[in-house]
Amino acid sequence: MYNYICETCGVQYKSTNKVPEQCLICEEERQYVSSKGQNWTTLETLLESGKYKNIVKLEEENLYSLTTAPGFGIGQTAYLVQNKNFNVLWDCITYLDQTTSKTINDLGGIDAIALSHPHYYSSQVEWAETFNAPIYIHEDDKEWVTRPSEKIIFWSGESFELCEGVTLQRIGGHFKGGTVVEWKNGNNQNGVLLCGDIVRIVADRQWVSFMYSYPNFIPLPSKTVERIAARLNKMNFARLYDAFNRVVKVEADQRVQRSATRYIEALNGTLFQT
């Protein structure tokens, strides 16, 4: 019995005797099946290869990024938030080895794991079992869980406070249960928003974007972006980190609002003529 992992998206599946025929995540229009076809691996195979390692980097006080080198799957970044003796792992990466476990335990371990959306579920159950931590996923994305576990807690509503100063906010968009983390204590109390790619920082780091599908370039409707912008306007943050370690360092709240306005104007045909 193996917990197979899709090589394209990096998401791990429940234990089976044979390789799955298809990936639930990649077959859906927001993701894609590799042009080389559907391929599978296991965490054990990744470990035995000796090819990968995780890089744990201090981004700012009480915030660490976790990335796998060379990149695997989608190649996203996870973050470890240290908040008043309560450590939150935001989003997940597939690769997990003993070196990573020791490094994180030296930083105080993990008290909770929270996910932005299904593309980053990766090997979340492995992480939860290793650190004996619950996983928080919005109930609207329950259908996308490929490896069920008693560690998973499906929360409901628009917000959920993990601990004082760290709140999960469902803003939807990319996925119905799309979630961001409002970390009020971060950035010297000026606030940090950890957004996965529910909000995505673009090449010009002064702007962000909002998409239904990033790899397939499917935009969100203007009314959805208006709703997202209104929700974000009520949150406390001056800095923003996305899933690919891009950062808007200052005035992130204002830049998000300006980006939403530009996006809506582009969709409505008032931003430019071409």
Automatic annotation (TrEMBL):
Superkingdom: Bacteria
Pfam families recorded: Lactamase_B
Occurrences of domain Metallo-beta-lactamase (ranges): 75-232
InterPro entries for the chain: Metallo-B-lactamas, RibonucZ/Hydroxyglut_hydro
Name this protein carries in UniProt: Metallo-beta-lactamase domain-containing protein
